[in-house]
Automatic annotation (TrEMBL):
The lineage of its organism: Bacteria, Pseudomonadati, Pseudomonadota, Alphaproteobacteria, Rhodobacterales. This is SnoaL-like domain-containing protein. Residues 12-145 form the SnoaL-like domain. CDD domains: NTF2_like.
Length: 154
């Protein structure tokens, strides 16, 4: 685990705003709302997949790698929208939030579950750990970075 769970807590309003950010992340991505999804990130925000996701025969896996900045994140989101066709569901569970280094920073850990419905009945395609950092700018919380590590399936 990358983040130590500390007894310090974020103010309730900040925690609620960040939990909403996690929920919107899943909803926007699942429904192909690429622009709204990208706007959840700071302008220099990043998404890093530490290892490739598992794949089923005939289906493309998400590769390992990092994507930084709104333009690159948009390209990634549009590519995934085309690939998934709105037939996957991301879920973030067991979210734990901690204050970061300063009042406008926070950190989060969660589990991620991805189910894939492209071939009919849903199949688990990814289970893993997610580490996120957040920044507050102009009064709003945004993802600064997300690092995802998935477990091997199958």
């Amino acid at each position: 685990m990358r983040m130590e769970v500390l007894p310090a807590r974020l103010p309730v309003e900040d925690e609620q705003a960040i939990l909403r950010l996690y929920a919107l992340y899943c909803h926007y991505f699942n429904h192909g709302e690429a622009r709204k999804w990208v706007e959840l990130f700071a302008p220099d925000g990043s998404f890093t997949r530490l290892n490739p996701s598992a794949t089923a025969p005939g289906q493309i896996a998400n590769p390992a790698g990092s994507t930084t900045g709104h333009a690159a994140l948009m390209e990634m989101a549009l590519g995934r929208r085309e690939m998934f066709r709105g037939l996957v569901r991301h879920q973030q569970t067991d979210i734990v939030l901690n204050p970061g280094p300063g009042p406008d920073r926070a950190e989060g850990i969660s589990y991620i579950l991805l189910t894939d419905w492209r071939d009919g009945p849903g199949k688990i395609r990814a289970v893993g750990d997610c580490f996120a950092t957040f920044i507050r700018a102009s009064g709003d919380w945004r993802f600064q970075s997300i690092e995802l590590s998935t477990l091997p399936l199958g």
